[in-house]
Automatic annotation (TrEMBL), chains A, B:
Annotated family: Belongs to the zinc-containing alcohol dehydrogenase family. Quinone oxidoreductase subfamily.
Protein's name in the database: Zinc-type alcohol dehydrogenase-like protein
Gene3D superfamilies: Medium-chain alcohol dehydrogenases, catalytic domain (3.90.180.10), NAD(P)-binding Rossmann-like Domain (3.40.50.720)
Zinc recorded as keyword: yes
GO MF annotations in UniProt: oxidoreductase activity; zinc ion binding
Keywords: Metal-binding, Oxidoreductase, Zinc
KW Cell membrane (keyword) present: no
Length: 345, 345
């Protein structure tokens, strides 16, 4: 069957009219553990802009989009956990066609039922950032993924107002951590405080001095959500001996890891797509994490991080969305909702 | 009271007659949690040669030596776990006078009773390397410190024939791991096989090809005990997604950490002196580790790694020992035994 999608044929500047194009693609019936999903909303993340920029010329268009809420239309013969007509949410896999499309195939292990009480626009802001934040906090850091289970422990979250930061702050507070974060202007400071941050440092000024002024000699662990090159040398002195630093942004230059040696620090990469890319058994943990997060949403523990919604999934709106995300100024998440190919706004 | 020691006044080449000097020092009575120990044997580790080379000129002589077996002569008023006349072993702290001395003060938390059945020369080869290997395997890697508790898991130990490698192989085998290690010549290969290594790779040749030829696509984790600069890029491709690489040798250049990102690998520094340098509560784990290792020795689980013994702790023998360790060709451990200031050999 034929379906609409937004595709790209090569990595062009987002200002180029051809950077994204409305296309038609053939949709296959789901096999094995795949679900066929009708996409109702999708979000744009920094990885979309990086993948777009790096796309080599291709005659088969590439379809991006790694956050979706949608309705299950059909299931493969080995699917056990999801049924037709379920409303699901997921980030999916970076090496398969994404959610900037009317219909998408996704492995059931990466999927959970969507929260009951949020709009699709609110829910579409969750999967990629929530999986990243959850894995960073509870798989990469030695912290427990339970309510109030980490009282007395501190975590520094560099760049708390972005997509991952906005959900990481909330998950960390739920888990009982003291959250110290960085922002650069009043609007983002207000936002991270609303999300629960205990201490907010201005990234323009000396972090160590501000931390000390706030009454902390060090933090137990840190999560760097902005330039790893810039922040690793700034964050290493702030983490207590034997602590762990998690990073999500690929370094552009080799890193001065010797700074971490005297304190026997640990450094961990969090890349949400590792599990699916390598088809690890641990893939199934992503569906489980999203199921637990849906519970937290339904219990009223989490507040939405979606801050802007464009109605209509199409090339025009996707270009707008990429331009905003690319600027690095986005607070929380930006979501595109169905109808597919609606009038632009 | 006055005692003999071997001291240095500045970092000189080991061929310089003044690189180490026989000196006399004042010995204080133990306070608080300190023990006063009569040193019966000490070992020379790579950290001794690095500390010697980097020593700035000082009028108060520096005393190195971070491995000792000795008899407790007196205890501080807050000591609870050790008594006068106990035979103890320990690595001690790098920021206090070391064990190249007739008497030494050491915090009881870093100390355990020596194994019963080994000679002091055999036991003196243990503490620093064993603490490093144990912490790397069971604190930095997600492995259990119990007999046969990690069956089916693989660890790559780069440079298995050196001091840390020689004990790491044995501890890993006790814990049930499959051990893959690297060597460069027949003598070291025979040695690591005697210690229990399952697969030995020649570091002169392509590690990935040899690993594959041995029937392994990847290893679960790796411990790099030689140049981190050289081996990190070679080891990263061999470790399975979500695995951990531990390193013990400070990098000389910034490291290409981006190589570890696609697989979301973890990187951990193991520096044995972190706990004592920062006076962490975790200091006490070092005494506990040595107590468990003494049990393993007494149960016949471990074989000695001491491969060479010089009788007499004095400047002449210490120069010989540093020259050997500095050459990087040492198999296992080199130990100096009392009597203090005996005839050279």
């Amino acid at each position: 069957m034929q379906a609409k999608a937004v595709g790209l044929y090569q990595g062009l500047p987002i200002s180029d009219p051809a950077s994204f194009q409305d296309i038609k693609v053939e949709v296959a019936q789901p096999q094995g553990r795949d679900l066929l999903v009708e996409v109702l909303a999708t979000a744009v993340n920094p990885i979309d802009t990086k993948q777009r920029q790096g796309q080599v010329a291709t005659s088969d268009p590439r379809i991006l989009g790694f956050d979706a809420v949608g309705k299950v239309l059909a299931v493969g013969d080995r699917v056990t956990s999801i049924m037709t007509d379920d409303l699901v949410y997921y980030a999916g896999a970076v090496d398969r066609p994404g959610s900037d499309a009317q219909y998408q195939l996704v492995d059931e292990r990466l999927v959970a039922l969507a929260p009951k009480n949020w709009s699709v626009a609110q829910t579409a802001g969750l999967p990629l950032t929530t999986l990243t934040a959850w894995e960073a906090l509870f798989e990469k850091l030695p912290l427990k993924a339970e309510k109030q289970a980490n009282l007395g422990k501190t975590v520094l979250i560099v760049n708390g107002a972005g997509g991952v930061g906005s959900i990481a702050i909330q998950l960390a507070k739920w888990a009982g951590l003291t959250v110290i974060t960085t922002t650069g202007k009043p609007a983002t400071t207000a936002w991270v405080k609303q999300l629960g941050a205990d201490v907010v440092l201005d990234y323009h000024d000396d972090l160590a001095k501000q931390l000390q002024a706030a009454g902390y000699d060090s933090v137990d662990h840190a999560i760097i959500l902005h330039s790893t090159d810039l922040y690793l040398p700034l964050v290493a002195p702030l983490v207590r001996p034997l602590g762990t630093i998690v990073a999500v942004v690929t370094n552009q230059q080799p890193l001065p890891m010797d700074l971490l040696k005297p304190k026997s620090l640990n450094f961990a990469w969090e890349f949400m797509f590792t599990k699916a890319n390598y088809q690890l058994t641990a893939m199934a943990t992503q569906g489980m994490i999203l199921a637990r997060v849906a519970e937290l949403v339904d219990q009223g523990v989490l507040q939405p991080t979606t801050k802007r919604v464009l109605e209509g999934i199409n090339a025009t709106n996707l270009k707008k969305a990429h331009a905003v995300v690319e600027s690095g100024q986005m607070l929380g998440k930006l979501v595109l909702t169905a109808p597919f190919d609606a009038a632009n706004n």
